[in-house]
Amino acid sequence: MNQPDLLDELLSCRLDHGQRKVEPCCVVIFGASGDLAARKLIPALYHLHRELPEPVRIVGVARGERSDDQWRAELKTSLDRHSRTQPVDAAAWDAFSPCLSYCRGDVTDAEAFGRLRRHLERIAPAPQNRRLLFYLAISPSQFGVTSRQLEASGFLDRSESGEGWQRVVIEKPFGHDLASARRLNAELTRHLHERQLFRIDHYLGKETVQNIMLFRFSNAIFEQLWNRQAIDHVQITVGEKAGVGARGAFYEEVGALRDIVQNHLLQVLALIAMEPPSRLETESIRDEKIKLLHAIRPFTPAEVGSQVVRGQYGPGEIDGQAVPGYRAEPRVAPDSQVETFVALRLAIDNWRWAGVPFFLRSGKRLAQSASEIRIQFRPAPHVLFAAECGPRLEPNSLTLRLQPNEGISLHFNGKVPGSTMEIRPVRMRFSYDAEFGAYTPEAYERLLLEAMAGDPTLFIRRDEVEASWSVVDPIRDAWAGQSLAGTAIYPAGTWGPAAAEELLAATGHAWRNPGPGQ
Ligand code: BG6
After folding, report:
1. Are residues 361 and 406 in the same domain?
2. 25 and 162 share a domain?
3. Taking the model in full, what pTM does it have?
4. Atom 8 of ligand 1 has which residue's CA nearest to it?
5. Residues 255, 122: one domain?
6. Is 14 a residue whose pLDDT tops 50?
């Protein structure tokens, strides 16, 4: 496809919900009593319910004994806390709640799957009860057994030749390193076809992350500049003020590198840096992402020492409140060596990006909850106004703000009004809210919709998972057995350890710390 055709396709591609064809189907949530179901899945399905033309039946599966009404009451309580629209609309809930039903079951028990079949036959007619989206909101250690049981009970039609369809959605972490990810992928694809497997990275469901591709490939002015000739370096920050909260035990196993860098940060990087896909089709887009991930230069152990910084939050202050350090959080070892902050410098070995450093960082208990991408352009070749403003002008930059206060801003230099030639950085700003109103669907709404519609574009393909582990595994290997230095402990409420600043200073750069607004 040539460039004008691709642009036409992009521009005419309506990404709003109304364009997605969702057939009447059933969503089966394994892990129905868990946090993910209560905080994300049910609120997302509640909002989708109002927009979908056809009713979707939602079946919760968990080990505990409870009636449909008890489950509904639990969900209503959590919806009141987690719905993005408040208060929950009573009429909308009354229309939605009959779609919810509960089926007790343990994924290791074959009989539970027989019960589930009978339950589905009771609550939905054919072929709706053969169009099944299984959401595994359970521990990754149970992904294998659940898919085995689903296949053994005849739920999964690998050939997809029969009536209906079956898909399985899984949540990260997809393994804890390359070898375990390969084992998991091999096990899952023994029971279902790769195209039936939907691996979620919820960052891909965020409006602003989806907009990266549209922004790049539908605006010729930026695409001309999207390369090493014009770009000096790129910064991607995913910052959170929150600590690990009740997830201490999980975090002790995972750490920031596996929790955020391996997935969210590398996915955002792939979208920012990949080549234009030849078609706006799932596999074309995924092929370009994977090419980019493969072009990331692997770290040697020595480079991990000089190009990757880890840190852990100590006690400090967030919004004027004293907060404990990571080691004092519940279910965290008092001498934990787990990182809650990572900053790294990556090189991408291809013609577009040779010599352009990419700086990525993420951390808990930072100064702001904000995620953004900053593209910094090369400095002006000759500073005409050196006498007025000094030898250095602020370089131009483009900031894609992922959250909150989503938008895009372009920073350039302008003249301060008056009789002097004073120069100051100014910006041009596009804000989602100002342009489109405050409509920000949750990432899970979009992703559930896509999974029901059977479009895997916003999900992670097997080789993407494996390529991402190949990037982070050498870092973990180099860290193994090395204690965190005392200087790695940063006070909560700051932007991480000093070494993260030095990482950029070494090449004459500095982080741009996101503010609360754009
Ligand atoms: C999750 C991580 O994947 O993403 C969490 O496990 C993190 O640790 C969360 O807090 C951040 O997501 P968001 O959408 O709040 O930026």
Report:
1. yes
2. yes
3. 0.92
4. 259
5. no
6. no
